[in-house]
Amino acid sequence: MIKEIFEHRSIRKYKNEPIPDNVMTSILNAACRASNTGNMQVYSIIVTTDNEIKKALAPTHFNQSMVTQAPAILTFCADFNRFNKWCKMRNAEPGYDNFLSFLTAAIDAVIAAQNACLEAENHGLGICYLGTAIYNPDKIIEILDLPKGVVPITAVTMGYPDENPELTDRLPREAVVHYEKYKDFSESDINRIYAEKEASEESKKFIKENNKDTLAQVFTDVRYPKVNNEHFSKVLFDVLKKQGYME
Questions:
Q1: Domain coordinates of the chain in residue numbers?
Q2: For 146-183, what is each residue's pLDDT tens digit?
Q3: What is the arrangement of strands in the sheet containing 126-130, beginning at the earlier edge strand?
Q4: What is the pTM of this model?
Q5: Are 72 and 49 in contact (CB under 8 A)?
Q6: Per-residue b/e over 78-99, b at no fewer than 16 CB within 10 Å?
Q7: Where are the alpha helices (DSSP H) in 12-79?
Q8: Which CATH number fits domain 2-164: 2.120.10.30, 1.10.760.10, 3.20.20.70, 3.40.109.10?
Q9: Which residue pairs from 173-179 have beta carbons closer than 8 angstroms and sit at least 24 positions apart in sequence?
């Protein structure tokens, strides 16, 4: 799978071709073998192939066309519902109604998602992560009938690619790797690390389309502005309370 790691592309256009059952089984088996906290596997995966349910999910993912076009959407959820029930049935009192437990389950869900994505790409499928799952968790909970203790963390569209986009740029390794201790960044470090990204034609296009002066402004003013971050933070925390993680 080393090839899949280094040649990953986000695929947003898919062929009208279903994923064979044996391939999906292999993908889900890979997800279930993911590393997780305490071997509790406090996550769940909702596999959606029904067109009507995909249509219902589309608005929760900002109506991106790939949501209804992809043959499958996998929604990865933090899930203490199952584990809590098991504990109570075995005369053990669970103490997982807190933020730490939610974070544990969320991490488990994301690791499982990445395993699934690598196995999907290993079978020639394309994938695209949907971060919007945590923007509208309340609506996804309603559509997918998620019980208390279950919170959507991320979703992945999956299918055979109908496009072959260029590799997405990545920052140089020095931007994210620190040895022994964290080494903070000087202004010259920041300039060097972001130089290639800022100079790319795609970045220049983003800046022009959004009528901004810098690429950073595209992120802070358009793609992820403070007002949206605060709004969706409140939505998520309200959902965590409702789902039993902030008792």
A1: 2-164
A2: 999 999 999 999 999 999 998 889 999 999 999 999 99
A3: 43-48, 72-79, 150-159, 126-130
A4: 0.95
A5: yes
A6: bbbbbbbeeeeeeeeeeebbee
A7: 21-32, 51-57, 65-69
A8: 3.40.109.10
A9: none
